[in-house]
């Protein structure tokens, strides 16, 4: 009876194992017959407290207002002890759906139910991201993006396993569960040499370069899929958990004809995870996955002015964050270009302390503090100059001259310096002369689109230009900066130029 019998009232198997365990913990083992006689089986747990008063302490079945009769004659302390012990045996069991089901499993739990996890690492470990109270928007935003991306089955996106909402009387705690990663990309760079990681054995620089090329192409492919999220069919549309546009404040329901754009917004090495082994992925050096979409967004607009800028700070942000300009998907291209440049640095030179980071240090005009960025904003009299950091330009030149700089690395540096790390012009950067006639000064350059970036890296990888041939003889003529442009009186902005060896200039009003 305690271990289970088939119920005559339903298809469920009726058991009393958990009830017995609770009674044993409460020193009430002899009361088990009362629970059996009243059909108060494991299936009916937990019993919930009635009211907020401490006395009388009463427990009832979920949805009922009358206390459970089995507790008649118990003291308040005994009922409270039973209540405390019942949660100890009610840890949830999380299960995946079938492999063909891409939907993210969602669990809503009572705040007293313990999560079935213990701290530690190992083959069966998971990563649990806890979004604290007040982070509901971030939670829904990240789940929405990951749910849509799961339909692509791209191994370079982090895989969201389940979501957990734990309800308390006053708020909800939100959790996202992911497979446990061996490290993030920054930890990989800092802890491993390019010629010795993952397998524990010595691998050639050619093997490492090929792995870097494959992973960079995969990340670019993933970014392109994120940037172009148009639903292909109704099935993909239904894969969205919330089905509303974050940009519309949850007011506009998405349809299968709604053009959707995704943006990550915070690409950096710490948000790219390294898995030494991954199912169905055959590279012995592992797999990189793009992660942490809490700052990301899904919207219907080419550019947005209400992106959460305060959530994106630090080294890998593009200059438009500091210039308070409308933001577009191209912010991800800049950030990924920064990551790619550091990736090539690790491949060619190794992770040599803070040498590259130190070269990027400059004094911020906003706070007056020194910070590490890939661009710099300088004041030159009435003008404010925004340009690629001179330390970055110098570092690219040094990489080109390194003995390990192959033809592939040269081509990749060209791609980064001329099409990714580009200070983009906008319609507001105009020269206004004495007749108030707007004139755009200098070339109007824009960053490469994610689709073109994916295609370019794919062609570079397919060409096999990662060969062992020496690179120093493969030189690129450096682009000289344009001469300083003389401004014509009071102006809003004066654009000078727009790529890595160039800069554009603004005139302060």
Automatic annotation (TrEMBL):
Secreted in keyword set: no
Protein kinase domain mapped to chain residues: 88-485
Entry keyword Kinase: yes
Keywords: Kinase, Transferase
InterPro entries: Kinase-like_dom_sf (IPR011009), Prot_kinase_dom (IPR000719)
Classification via SUPFAM superfamilies: Protein kinase-like (PK-like) (SSF56112)
Origin superkingdom: Eukaryota
PROSITE patterns: PROTEIN_KINASE_DOM
GO molecular function, one term: protein serine/threonine kinase activity
PANTHER family: PROTEIN KINASE DOMAIN-CONTAINING PROTEIN, SERINE/THREONINE-PROTEIN KINASE SBK1
Protein name: Putative serine threonine protein kinase protein
């Amino acid at each position: 009876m305690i271990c289970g019998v088939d119920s005559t009232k339903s298809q469920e198997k009726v058991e009393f194992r958990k009830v017995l365990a609770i009674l044993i913990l409460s020193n009430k083992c002899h009361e088990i017959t009362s629970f059996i006689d009243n059909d108060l089986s494991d299936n009916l747990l937990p019993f919930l407290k009635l009211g907020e008063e401490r006395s009388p302490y009463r427990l009832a079945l979920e949805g009922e207002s009358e206390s459970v009769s089995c507790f008649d004659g118990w003291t308040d302390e005994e009922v409270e002890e039973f209540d405390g012990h019942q949660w100890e045996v009610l840890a949830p069991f999380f299960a995946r759906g079938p492999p063909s089901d891409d939907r993210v499993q969602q669990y809503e739990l009572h705040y007293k139910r313990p999560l079935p996890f213990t701290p530690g690492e190992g083959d069966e470990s998971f990563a649990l991201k806890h979004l604290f109270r007040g982070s509901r928007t971030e939670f829904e935003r990240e789940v929405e993006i990951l749910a849509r991306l799961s339909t692509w089955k791209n191994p370079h996106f982090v895989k969201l396993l389940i979501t957990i909402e734990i309800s308390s009387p006053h708020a909800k705690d939100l959790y996202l569960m992911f497979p446990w990663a061996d490290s993030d990309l920054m930890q990989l760079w800092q802890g491993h040499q390019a010629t010795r990681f993952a397998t524990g054995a010595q691998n050639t620089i050619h093997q490492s370069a090929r792995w870097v090329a494959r992973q960079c192409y995969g990340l670019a492919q993933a970014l392109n899929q994120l940037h172009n999220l148009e639903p292909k069919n109704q099935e993909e549309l239904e894969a969205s958990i919330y089905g509303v546009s974050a940009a519309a404040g949850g007011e506009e329901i998405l349809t299968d004809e709604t053009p959707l754009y995704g943006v990550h917004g915070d690409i950096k090495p710490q948000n790219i995870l390294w898995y030494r082994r991954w199912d169905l992925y055959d590279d012995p050096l592992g797999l990189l996955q793009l992660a942490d979409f809490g700052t990301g967004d899904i919207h219907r607009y080419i550019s947005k002015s209400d992106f959460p800028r305060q959530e994106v700070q630090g080294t890998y942000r593009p200059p438009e964050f500091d210039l308070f300009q409308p933001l577009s998907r191209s912010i991800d291209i800049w950030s990924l270009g920064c990551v790619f440049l550091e990736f090539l640095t690790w491949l060619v030179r190794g992770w040599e302390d803070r040498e590259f980071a130190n070269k990027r240090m400059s004094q911020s005009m906003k706070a007056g503090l020194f910070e590490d960025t890939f661009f710099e904003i300088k004041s030159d009299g009435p003008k404010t100059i925004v340009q690629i950091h001179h330390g970055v330009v110098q570092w690219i030149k040094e990489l080109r001259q390194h003995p390990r700089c192959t033809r592939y690395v040269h081509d990749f540096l060209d791609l980064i310096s001329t099409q990714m790390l580009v200070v983009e012009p906008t319609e507001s950067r105009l020269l206004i002369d004495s007749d108030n006639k707007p004139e755009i000064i200098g070339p109007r350059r824009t960053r490469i689109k994610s689709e073109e970036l994916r295609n370019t890296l794919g062609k570079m990888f397919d060409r096999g230009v990662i060969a062992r041939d020496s690179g120093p003889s493969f030189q690129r003529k450096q682009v000289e900066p344009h001469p300083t442009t003389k401004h014509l009186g009071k102006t809003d902005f004066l654009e000078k130029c727009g790529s890595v060896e160039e800069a554009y200039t603004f005139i302060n009003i």
